[in-house]
Amino acid sequence: GHLTVRQGEQVPGVIKQDPLPAFIDTLLARLGQERDFATLPPVAVGVGGGIRGTGFTHGIIDDPYPREEEARSAAYRGKVSDWYWKDFRTRRDPRTGRILLIMTRAHEDDLVAQLLNEQETHRRADQWTLVNFREIREDEPNPMDPRAPGEVLWPEFSSLEASLADQELNPGLFSAQYQQRPAPLEGFECK
Hints:
Elements lengths: L1 H15 L5 H9 L12 E2 L13 E5 L5 H5 L1 H15 L9 E5 L8 H11 L38 H10 L1 H8 L13
Helix pairs in contact: 6-7
């Protein structure tokens, strides 16, 4: 609605402010992006929001599944997918358009999974750069994450002990929302 549009209008000012946090500068550099929105302003809109008649070079999708139950709904995932392919993606500038998808993973067939699968199975598909910061750094290659394995993402907010307690209390939720690795509900053993 109006709030999304107003926030979208503020994005260029926020991104152009100096000094930017070092990790944003590093991320933009690694993705080959500049902090210049001269061609078309960035567009931020919610799923189902009005975007027709609007073009963009930088489109932002933030949390297309507002609640976990929507991500678990095949019908809602279909709505998100249809909106992305029929409304949102068709509005990007085909020469220079970039899309930023920010979301918490809640289902193994969410929009992130669909786009990455499309990239793997179709040679002309959009190419995505996955930027994934897990709550607890694992022993996996991630050149964008400077933490050592076992370190938490935001130690001023949550300790490793608190994160491990959350993981033990609800492993399915923790795996999806904190580690960005969704799995079917029946895939976790209850104790």
